[in-house]
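Fold Annotation — chain and its backbone

Fields — amino acid sequence, structure tokens

___
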Amino acid sequence: MTLRTSKYNCVINSAAMILDIEPEKVVQELGHDGTLKIYPELPEPECFKGVHMQEITDVCVRMGARPVHIMAYPAGKNSFDADVWAVFPDDVAQGRFSMYASMYSGIMLGVTASGAYHAVAWDTESAYDPKGFITPWPIFSITEGYFLI
């Protein structure tokens, strides 16, 4: 995997890395770059529409890749009850996510310490952060992954 940084957001750059294409090709496939201002009262980048992972899923499928969505800590809720329940105990959920991460490359998403959403590319051994560095594991709280099966 090649570390890619560009003017585009972390989702576009992460998709480019896992698909081994330039970020501009992802933008071309999407038909937009995620910078449509939908919240003009907010500062950048919070004001932008961004790119949804379902859009990236479509790009992957068109390019022959098959992403599978794996939640780090899946939870459920009945329509008649406000309680949310864990699908798996934490240790099982962690082991399950780690199993997919050890077998498949993909995009990991989560929340940074400052509360910002972030995405990195993953190659089964390292996180390729579009901010310009590689780490052994993402340095934010992971909420989900889209692994190429």
